[in-house]
Structures
1.
Amino acid sequence: DIQMTQTPSSMPASLGERVTISCRASQGISNYLNWYQQKPDGTIKPLIYYTSNLQSGVPSRFSGSGSGTDYSLTISSLEPEDFAMYYCQQYDSSPWTFGGGTKLELK
Amino acid sequence: EIQLQESGPGLVKPSQSLSLTCSVTGYTITSGYDWSWIRKFPGNKMEWMGYISYSGSTNYNPSLKSRISITRDTSKNQFFLQLNSVTTEDTATYYCARTYYYYDGTYYLNWFAYWGQGTLVTVSS
């Protein structure tokens, strides 16, 4: 299985701050990398697909980048609704696997 | 609007079977895509468990292969999870989800596009 290592596991941050979450795969995944957001009420929604493509309706302050084994999610200026859990997920090979999650918390 | 809703017992005893239902509205499960079960453990780790495709074929995570079964009732537009011989390690929030995938020879896109709200299952005596 491809292991996904996501860092940090938690991140205190302030409104308006720029933050970056990292995700490293145990082997190259050819940009087959998605990001998800889980809100405190448990709802999960897709944010970014194929490394850098924003899902419909996702604000442009979100962006994704990376290649090979290293990927990242950046939020350019934190809004109150962005404080949530974030997960990366690879689909290069089955079984699809997720990173351990990053909890974005208000500082 | 596509909606998925999990249902089932919130408490299961060790060594018994866990059974959950995912009810789908807004899309017919035989029309396309894969229909997955995913779980999130206390401590936030997430695990894809397996899927049943629109055609009825299945694909399971090898870590669960001997214990898992995903089936469906097309007349009710539902699909099901059965996990046998559960232990306390199976305590988790269980989600059902539908993928979106696309391949044109160059781009391969695949993500979990629609999710249920999740249902907490606790394994305890």
2.
Amino acid sequence: KQEVTQIPAALSVPEGENLVLNCSFTDSAIYNLQWFRQDPGKGLTSLLLIQSSQREQTSGRLNASLDKSSGRSTLYIAASQPGDSATYLCAVSGTASKLTFGTGTRLQVTL
Amino acid sequence: DVKVTQSSRYLVKRTGEKVFLECVQDMDHENMFWYRQDPGLGLRLIYFSYDVKMKEKGDIPEGYSVSREKKERFSLILESASTNQTSMYLCASRNSPFRETVSNQPQHFGDGTRLSIL
């Protein structure tokens, strides 16, 4: 059974700092990995999707990497801003469309 | 932009009631999903549908059923609501033009329905 772990559970950084969020998964037979952002009381916003054949994806200040063989992904956020404060979730897709989610990293960017 | 709309943001029902949660997407997506989100447990898949009138059980289908009569609408039904079904419910949709069960298209989520069962 696939398990997804995100460490740390919470993170506080000053504005302008570069940061890395970590995601690990136990079964490397994945189809893709997706990073999401969730604001309090809201649904999920898709940030990046990395296919199993890819090593990384970039969107603006965000860069996600995937090392399938070691079961790891990282989300790099450059020059963090207070508006980046949210919970970040990673999810892996195996067979049959199922996404297995981690429990998230709650990020706070302080002024 | 993809728009996934859930009919209610907050809902309060009583134990034993039959509860309907509605989800509508406006992008003609083939696949639709229902999740619940609980503190410490993350998001868990209840049911999904990869096309009209088709449905597949997720990880926690017990106590739930679904209906997909039209492509844009996916309904989650709590047959007899219980207090342990108090949760945040999230609907998602995904483009899958070949009606494949596995896709490299991202899932797009609604804002969720916070359901309380008293």
